[in-house]
Specification:
seven-stranded antiparallel beta sheet, nicotinate phosphoribosyltransferase, six-stranded parallel beta sheet, alpha/beta, globular
């Protein structure tokens, strides 16, 4: 079966096609439009997100085509005009895309992706973009938080069997690696992206032998270089660890210089790991590898650390690839500006009774400012057509919700425009980067954040504000729209 992202045209909501058909029928499909992708809220107790999935999205966009069987299916629906279906036969995305680099630390309300294209094209790609970027950003962020809790210990991603289907399993493994996991159990993800693969045996392996000791000996015989033994099938401390020690001693006697390595998958992980570590060291195996699994997340990892657990490698599955208690990132794709029928450009803005759903008008340029220590100090959204302040100028940034709060960034602050051009003329212009490089960049981004943003509970809120000019335009647009509603 062809992977979904290699045939992405119909991976869309029906209303994208009906809107596309409407623009086609009314003659407005070629008007230029700009859409922006952003999210409004971080998961609870999270101070930042790690942007992930961009390379996957760009690769899918390059091969977006309506094949004969796709068009035949749409014709059978009886919804679309035959002329529109024929138009889809030649569909190619020809627009331009700007985006923050994959692996960036990002925050609410700042445009992470800007799509500039004929209206019909820009509208059609919305669902694909949201599907890829929302999920991978969610998982990469979760992985970064788990890595923060684990400190220097490696994280193994074990989510394949609990992921939302094969596609979620693959993209989840990819995003988890970007966010900080060291390896995956997912062999297909290892093949596709070069992610290191790790694993051990199941309880079924132990139970398939007459005794636990025979099971461990059999596994070590076939995989003598680095056997990792699951020790909690029957009784961790009275059976599993002693039998593992017997096998490790036998390997050493046979001339194998192996590191004692066990996995705990149940019980009181703090107590068991402390005692198992003591037993292994007493038996002459310094620095044993103790892997723990069993529905772990960042909070449990941090709690086990506080209890003095001797775990030094963590297997995380369900609560990583599903997002745990926060299974979705609410990223949105909103129209920022459009060319009218006469060719003039019009900034657009959505106004809502929920202030958090009110958007900022026009095309925006997110710029990150840094303090003297090199930490991000705040992100400011500038109107794309306004002059950027000189480095010698102070930058004043009002709160985007008009709450009266202001941030003043000092003179000579280091700054970085976050977006770069990644797609133009039907192809990516940003070369695909190795996933290991994206992962390293994400690690650097998280390491540069102030400690108060990386806290697992009650992190500080990072500043994302507007330039004074954009704030003025927003206030004027709100006033104009209010006047249109007046009786």
């Amino acid at each position: 079966m062809t992977p979904t992202l290699e045939r992405p045209a119909l991976l869309t909501d029906l209303y994208q096609l009906t809107m596309l058909g409407g623009h086609f029928g009314l003659g407005g499909r070629d008007r230029r439009a700009v859409f922006e992708y952003f999210f409004r809220q971080l998961p609870p107790h999270t101070g930042y997100a790690i942007f992930a999935g961009l390379d996957e999205f760009l690769g899918a966009l390059e091969c977006m085509r309506f094949h004969d069987e796709d068009l035949a299916y749409l014709a059978r629906l009886g919804t679309f005009d035959p002329a529109f279906i024929e138009y889809l036969r030649g569909f190619r995305f020809s627009g331009e895309i700007w985006a923050v680099p994959e692996g960036s630390a990002v925050f609410p309300y700042e445009p992470l992706v800007r799509v500039s294209a004929p209206l019909a094209e820009a509208q059609l790609i919305e669902t694909l973009l949201l599907n890829v970027l929302n999920y991978q950003t969610l998982v990469a962020t979760k992985a970064a938080r788990i890595a923060e809790a684990a400190e220097a210990d490696p994280i193994l991603e074990f989510g394949l069997r609990r992921a939302q289907g094969p596609d979620g399993a693959l993209s989840g493994s990819r995003a988890a690696y970007v966010g900080g996991c060291a390896a995956t159990s997912n062999v297909a993800a290892g093949q596709r992206w070069g992610i290191p693969v790790r694993g051990t045996h199941a309880h079924a392996w132990v139970m398939s032998f007459p005794t636990e000791l025979e099971a461990f000996r059999g596994y070590a015989k076939i995989f003598p270089q680095a056997p990792l033994l699951l020790v909690d099938t029957y009784d961790t401390l009275r059976s599993g660890v002693p039998n593992a020690i017997t096998v490790f001693k036998e390997l050493r006697a046979a001339g194998r210089d192996v590191r004692a390595a066990i996995r705990l998958d149940s019980g009181d992980l703090a107590k068991l790991s402390i005692e198992a570590h003591r037993m292994l060291v007493s038996a002459g195996f310094d620095d044993p590898l103790i892997v723990a699994s069993n529905d772990l997340d960042e909070d449990l990892v941090a709690d086990l650390k506080r209890q003095g657990a001797r775990i030094n490698c963590w297997g995380i599955g369900t609560k990583l690839v599903t997002g745990g208690a926060n299974p979705a990132l609410g990223g949105v794709y909103k129209l920022a500006g459009i060319e009218d029928a006469g060719g003039a450009w019009r900034a657009t803005m959505k106004v809502s009774g929920n202030p958090e759903k009110t958007t900022d008008p026009g095309v925006k340029l997110p710029v990150r400012f840094y303090d003297a220590a090199g930490h991000p100090a705040g992100d400011v959204l500038f109107a794309a057509d306004e002059a950027m302040p000189e480095p010698a100028q102070r930058v004043h940034s009002p709160d985007r919700q008009f709450s009266g709060r202001r941030l003043t960034l000092p003179q000579h602050s280091k700054r970085r425009v976050l977006q770069e051009r990644v797609f133009a003329d039907g192809r990516r212009v940003l070369p695909e980067r190795p996933l290991s490089q994206i992962r390293s960049f994400a690690h650097e981004e998280v390491a540069a954040l102030p400690a108060e943003l990386r806290r697992l509970r009650n992190p500080e809120r990072y500043w994302v504000g507007l330039s004074e000019e954009l704030a003025r335009r927003k206030a004027a647009e709100v006033e104009r729209l209010e006047a249109l509603l007046a009786p």
